[in-house]
Amino acid sequence: MSLGLRAQVLDTIPKTVVDTMKHFEKTITKIPNVQNPDTLKPKIFKPNPSKVLWMGAILPGYGQILNRKYWKLPIVYGGFLGCAYFISWNSDKYNSYKTAYRDIIDNDPNTTSYKNIIPKGYTYESFIASYGGEATFSNTLKTKQDTYRRYRDMSILVSIVYYGITLVDAFVDAQLYDFEISPDLSLRCRPTVLPNKSGIPDAFGMKFCLSLK
User: Fold this and answer.
1) pLDDT band at residue 47, thresholds of 50, 70 and 90?
2) Quick check: helix, strand or coil at residue 207?
3) Which of 22, 105, 111, 199 is the most exposed place for a label (fewest CB within 10 A)?
4) Largest CA distance in the chain
5) What is the C-alpha separation between 171 and 26, in angstroms, rounded?
6) What is the DSSP string of 53-73?
7) What are the phi and psi torsion angles at 194 (to 5°)?
8) Alpha helices, DSSP H only, in the chain?
């Protein structure tokens, strides 16, 4: 009986209204359940340590970006700029002294780059005379060449080590990203009794308690 009444009632409603009601019912059924606790949980950010390591190896500093530690970028790139500066400066000095040393020992009057190293205000003859002779000056150029070559190599080595440090920093930072570190670090000092089981009276002392929570 109820079905018949419902059909009669639907027959009296315009078709456009019925179609609208049916479309509204289909739309309602497609709406997700907003009360689902899984949908209400905020998405927790957790970097991928492997991705951080490889991307940081390809592009220095990108590991810190993936970890969202943007404040470390000036330190990372500042360190690389410093390393590049020292490599370039020591390389220029090494090449300058190497060329000067080769020119002074080849006995070719057309190669005189060693004169560019002489301080201003001196001629080559006066500088050599005050320096102790051409042989002494040649030995000095050789020593300077070896010194700045060693400095250049050390600068390259330091740059490689610094590059490795940035990778380790990014990887460890990603591994310990969700590691809880409580600011509750307290040291308490209080008197205590030190028992003695050898028949000697108990002694009094101080007890220090370090709490890490």
Assistant:
1) confident
2) strand
3) 199
4) 129
5) 49
6) HHHHHHSTTHHHHHTT-GGGH
7) -100, 100
8) 2-12, 15-30, 37-40, 49-58, 62-66, 73-105, 124-131, 134-175
